[in-house]
Amino acid sequence: MIAKLLNVDESVRKMELNFETGVPFKPLYGVTDDRTLELYMHHARQESTKYFLLVTVGEESVRHGKKLVESEYWMVTKYEKNHTCPTDFKPVRRRQATSWVVGECVKRKLINPGRVYRPRDVMDDMKRKFGVDISYSVAWRGRECAYDNLRLGTPEQSYKLLPGYLHMLMDTNPGSVVNLEVSNGNRFQYLFIAFVASIHGFSYCRPVINIDATHLKGKYRGVLFTAVCHDANQQIFPLAFGVGDSKNDASWSWFLHRVKSVFGSNPALVIVSDRHHSINNVVQEVFPQAFHGICMYHLLNNLKTKFRNKTKELEQHYIRTTKTYNLQDFHVLFYTLSSAVPGVKEYLEAVALHRWTRSHAPSRRYNIMTTNISESLNAVLVKVRELPITALVNEIWLLCQKWFHERRTKAAGMFPLSYKKLFLLAVMEKKNSRYVILKKNCSYYSNNTF
Asked: Are strands 291-294 and 50-57 parallel, antiparallel or unpaired?
């Protein structure tokens, strides 16, 4: 601390000063004579605007001093001529295990955002590895220092780093769409991200988009918006991410307008979500031609809350009624449900049959009757949602890159021969009997492989 305070790098420096107590002095470094004090940085503390230090004269005396407010001068406040404890002595229990040192020692254990590492674990590791006893507060502050180091700074610093990070993200992922909106006071308001792989891949997916929002757990809270769909292999395919202040009409409207501008508005588009009133209002405004269906399990939970006495019968008949394709079967099942649970018919008809049944849906929902893919993505990001904004975006990017890379690698392994070579082989098939294209388990081979 003293080295930083006095703008020096070494732990011991020389300075010339007046020996009399109460007389101000100004340190002069590089002076070595009989009137020289040695400054030790390891015995110092900070309190308010005053800085206290320990200095020695030769080997026999100790002086305590303080820095004058708004001045470069110091004043000796206490003088002890005889002392028995050398200044370089430090008991084992009082080693310099500061929070910063503890953070540097344990930060490797926190690289994985999902790792649960409690202050008690920090205390045990410091005792086992270094033989140092630290308090719970030092362990907690040390863990926070490690988090700040790994999370690209504190939450405040993270917001400052965000514009530069987004610029580099677009530079390394050309074709991606990033929108950052700030208020009049230059404060963060909204963020939208759609990676180029998601934009290009959506045209090969079913036109059914799940939208959802989940709360962030960082210092400044907020909400993470997601838009996902299924790919051809029934895997989660993330489309877009957004960050806003809360689940209100303004935030949903801002996010869905960006989704529409990037992915378009297909007449066959289907939006699936829960029954949040803001989503209902905004989807009708932004996607007036799209069909907006609701998650069957969210509606089931609402029914269980309203009809508590008939939970078992309700769930059994409701799921069969929801998933049937045939209108005739629907009427039979719906009558059975209405008979088993009085009052449920009026409730479900008020919700609108086409929004929660497969048989009445005006557009193809395929087998996507729930928002499970959105909930699954939220579960994957449960620990990531605790990170500051820049680290949050970075983890989302790493997750999407990992998924896209693994899927591309797996797909490329199904075709040992490149598409260009396959085309050339097809052209040469009639001219050269040496090459034969065989289809076997979606793979292509030449005669040379047999």
From this structure: unpaired
d(CA 435, CA 423): 12
User: 355 Cβ partners below 8 Å, 6+ apart?
Assistant: 292, 293, 294
* Ramachandran class of 89: left when φ > 0, alpha when ψ lies in -120 to 50, beta otherwise: beta
Question: Which residue did the predictor score with more confidence, 188 or 16?
Answer: 188
Cα 36 → chain centroid: 54
- Identify the DSSP state of 132: -
Q: Which has more pLDDT, 24 or 170? A: 170
Q: What is the mean pLDDT of the chain?
A: 77
Which of these, 64, 21, 68, lies nearest to 43 by C-alpha position?
A: 64
**CB 65, CB 73: distance < 8 Å:** no
Give the integer Cα–Cα distance in Å for 271 and 265: 11
3-state helix, strand, coil in the chain (%, to 5): 45, 20, 35
Res 401 pLDDT > 80:
yes
Q: Letter for the amino acid at 178?
A: V
Structure tokens at 147: 């988090």
Q: Residue 181 half-sphere exposure, CB side, CA atoms within 13 Å?
A: 14
CA distance 16 to 1: 21
16 pLDDT exceeds 70?
A: no
For residue 366, count other CB atoms closer than 10 A to its CB.
Answer: 13
Strands (E), 116-222: 177-182, 188-194, 208-215
Task: Write down the pLDDT at residue 243.
Answer: 96
CB neighbourhood size of 182 (10 A): 14
Residue 60 in this model has a pLDDT that exceeds 90: no
> What CA–CA distance (Å, rounded) separates 361 from 208?
13
Residue 80: its H or E element:
strand 74-80
Whole-number pLDDT of residue 1: 29
Higher pLDDT residue, 419 or 338? 338
Instruction: Give the integer Cα–Cα distance in Å for 417 and 425.
Output: 10
CA dist 393 and 414 (Å) reads 32
Alpha-helical (H) ranges within 153-295 are: 155-172, 196-201, 249-263, 277-286
Helix and strand totals (H; E) in the chain = 16, 16
- Give phi and psi for 396, each to the nearest 5: -65, -45
Question: pLDDT value at position 353?
Answer: 92
Q: Show the tokens assigned to 45.
A: 């503390």
